[in-house]
Specification:
The complex is a heterodimer of chains A (207) and B (257).
Chain A: E1 13-15, H1 19-43, H2 45-51, H3 54-67, H4 70-75, H5 79-89, H6 93-103, H7 119-143, H8 152-179, H9 182-190, E2 192-194, H10 195-201
Antiparallel strand pairs in A: 1-2
Helix pairs in contact in A: 1-2, 1-3, 7-8
Chain B: H1 29-64, E1 99-103, E2 109-111, H2 113-118, E3 122-129, E4 135-145, H3 146-153, E5 161-166, E6 172-176, H4 177-180, E7 185-191, E8 194-195, E9 205-208, E10 220-226
Parallel strand pairs in B: 1-10
Antiparallel strand pairs in B: 1-2, 3-4, 4-7, 5-6, 5-10, 7-8, 7-9
The chains are: A mainly alpha (207), B alpha+beta (257).
């Protein structure tokens, strides 16, 4: 893959993601996409009427959901990925400053300090991981109905439905942010970003 | 890919002396957010019955006044969900619809829509309860009592059950003869005081008032009297055959019959 002509010279590119990290993201995104698409076909009447085949759609949805944590688990054999999990987990004082700026709608670069990941990305990563596990747990309760006591399935369905809606909104925000930042997308596609972008968006990051 | 960048795989990580989020003394907020989300999910499951009642009451009220119909897409927003087990269902109308009654009967029969309309009609108004949780209050169904058709056919005394087949080509259902002869089991021609539409299983669907709605087979085309109950489509996949609302499938909904 050759860099596009307008891309800055090699020397100004910095490594952001390893091959393993890129594939973790790709696999998780694909599985999440299947979950969302099949959920829409089960849930939105117009799509359900168009697609039908309820039994098959349910099976695909269940297996995609079951496999969703696998890329992250498999990725943890990679040192670079484990290191990024550490980056995502640990918050410093600059992350509070970043969040405060967002709440005040302060768009100045100086008020949004970020290291490799900004506080928004850290929040998103932790929340979507937790939400995925809740979806997995409630999904399993709905799947293996005979294993659970009375009432559990109804309650699990309730949480699964409302959380699905919430994830849909948050995921749309995540994809919308990516669509708005070409260099961030290039970072996940090629593993490299321009030094200028890194210094502007992640001034505290030392690649 | 990236074959021209061999350093990609194992580039030595440069020292990061000042990277502020690389220090192990940062607060592990990410882990707390993750665990907090898990905790909220568990709390949601525990509090679901209460939350669900409140939301159903609220959204049920709102959806009545919502001209966009968007509330119908929300969980517990009221209204029907469309479920079909096949990719597409043929459309049937006055010209080509037939309902056959056969099996262990003295007089097998085939009814057109006009034949069914000419028989005595019964109108029932009950709540509808789906096994997946949605409920539609006070929905009128109108049609011929199943017992009328069974009596007309003359059921063999050794028969014990009725099997239903559908012109979607896949769906099946069953009832015991005692269940089938109840006065609140209809071969329905109307729903909500209109002819049953295609998406709701028209022109003719089964209506079993006291049971979960999967028993009310859509696109009904065949009634076969059998010796014993054979599990239907969803029952082969884990749902209860005797699907009384509130007393089966591990649920405790208010009865609809």
């Amino acid at each position: 893959m050759h860099p596009p002509v307008e891309a800055p010279a090699r020397s100004t590119r910095v490594r952001r993601f390893s091959r393993g990290e890129k594939w973790v993201h790709r696999a998780a995104a694909a599985l999440m996409g299947v979950c969302v698409a099949t959920a829409a076909c089960l849930y939105i009447p117009a799509l359900a009427e168009l697609v039908g085949r309820r039994e098959l759609v349910v099976r695909i949805h269940e297996w995609a959901g079951l496999l969703l944590p696998v890329p992250v688990l498999a990725g943890s054999v990679s040192r670079a990925f484990r290191k990024d999990l550490g980056h995502l987990n640990r918050w410093g004082p600059h992350d509070r400053i970043w969040l405060r700026a967002v709440l005040r709608r302060d768009h100045r670069r100086a008020s949004r300090p970020a290291a490799k990941f900004n506080a928004g990305q850290k929040t998103y990563a932790a929340w979507i991981a937790g939400a995925t596990l809740v979806m997995l747990g409630t999904g399993l309760l709905m799947w293996f109905t005979r294993l659970t006591p009375l009432m559990w399935r109804t309650s699990a369905t309730f949480v699964h439905d409302w959380l699905a809606l919430t994830i849909g909104v948050v995921l749309a925000g995540h994809i919308g942010m990516a669509l708005g930042d070409r260099e961030a997308r290039r970072g996940l596609r090629t593993g490299e970003v321009s030094r200028e972008w890194a210094e502007r968006e992640h001034p505290l990051w030392r690649p | 890919m990236n074959s021209e960048r061999p350093e990609e795989r194992d580039a030595p990580e440069p020292a990061e002396p000042t990277a502020p989020d690389d220090r192990a003394d940062g607060s592990p907020i990410g882990r707390r957010v993750l665990l907090g989300t898990l905790g909220l999910g568990a709390l949601g499951v525990v509090a679901a019955p209460t939350l669900q009642r409140g939301l159903e009451a609220f959204l049920g009220g709102v959806s009545g006044k919502d001209p966009t119909g968007l509330t119908g897409l929300l969980p517990n927003g009221g209204g029907f969900r469309y479920y079909s087990v096949t990719a597409s269902v043929p459309r049937k109308d006055d010209t080509n619809y037939r309902l056959t009654v056969d099996g262990m009967v003295d007089r097998p029969a085939s009814y057109t829509l006009a034949d069914l309309r000419a028989l005595p009609q019964t109108r029932l108004v009950h709540d509808i309860q789906c096994v997946t949780g949605w409920r539609v209050p006070k929905t009128p169904f109108e049609g011929v009592r199943l017992s009328t058709l069974l009596d007309a056919a003359g059921v063999d005394p050794s028969a014990g059950a009725v099997r239903f087949t559908c012109f979607d080509g896949a769906y099946t259902e069953s009832l015991t003869l005692d269940q089938a002869r109840r006065s609140d089991v209809l071969v329905a021609l109307k729903m909500q005081d209109k002819p049953v539409g295609h998406n709701h299983g028209g022109p003719v669907r089964l209506y079993v008032a006291p049971m979960y709605f999967y028993k009310s087979a859509k696109w009904l085309s065949g009634i076969t009297v059998t010796r014993a109950v054979r599990p239907g489509y969803w029952e082969e996949r884990g749902y209860d055959v005797d699907a009384w609302v509130g007393r089966s499938n591990g649920r405790d909904d208010a009865p609809t019959g």
